[in-house]
Design brief:
The chain is of the alpha/beta class and about 200 residues long. It contains eight helices and six strands, in the order αααββαβαβαβαβα.
């Protein structure tokens, strides 16, 4: 693709590095920023600079935070006896959006993936184990990991590490989504839905 300016080309190449954005979309975004009022473009760059230089990770749960400890860990309204283990911060946001969970979280920072060279020591698993051992409040650990081979491997690894501790280890239910059609549901999900069935009330 030919660009009228090296500045545009450099900007397009950087924007295109973002997930889900190709060169054409990147070019549209860059041209849009050029047309925008300069103050709006500068506000965007300032927000991104602050994001990169000032963002923190909670020292307790490793969720993205503005402070050393996130608002969820500081809150007295959260049930500290239930600890939900997730892969990334976006999983925390997804669960929070349901308004169904009032416990606290622990963000692993990914899942075990030997193919990608990610082992248990690359994740916040040791910090999780330490946190649970030091806590007198934790009574249940929910493994809310993606239903993939890597997610299941990680859940199995954590479960094995926790099996001798006096806490309940659960995992999120897996089944057919609301509005889903059985005909198009994969066999593993459908099988888990059958074996994990609950009373109809």
């Amino acid at each position: 693709m030919e660009y009228p300016s090296k500045l545009i080309e450099d900007a397009v190449n950087e924007v295109a590095k973002l997930p889900g954005i190709g060169k054409k979309t990147a070019l549209r975004l860059v041209l849009h920023l050029i047309k925008e009022n300069e103050n709006r473009t500068l506000a965007l760059t300032e927000a991104l600079t602050k994001l990169r230089t000032q963002i923190k990770f909670c020292k307790t749960c490793f969720n993205i935070s503005d402070d050393d400890e996130c608002a969820l860990c500081r809150s007295h309204r959260r049930d500290k006896s239930i600890l939900c283990v997730v892969e990334e911060s976006n999983d925390v946001m997804a669960i929070e959006n349901t308004a169904q969970f009032l416990g606290v979280y622990h963000v692993l920072g990914g899942v075990i993936s030997p193919i990608n060279g990610i082992g248990p020591s690359d994740l916040k698993i040791d910090a999780l184990l330490e946190r649970i051992k030091k806590s007198v409040e934790t009574k249940e650990v929910i493994l809310a990991l993606s239903p993939t081979m890597e997610g299941d491997t990680t859940a199995f690894y954590i479960h094995r590490k926790l099996k001798d501790l006096p806490i309940k280890v659960t995992s999120i239910a897996r089944g057919v989504p609301v509005g889903g059609n059985l005909e198009y549901t994969d066999e593993i999900t459908l099988g888990r839905s059958i074996t994990g069935r609950v009373l109809f009330d």
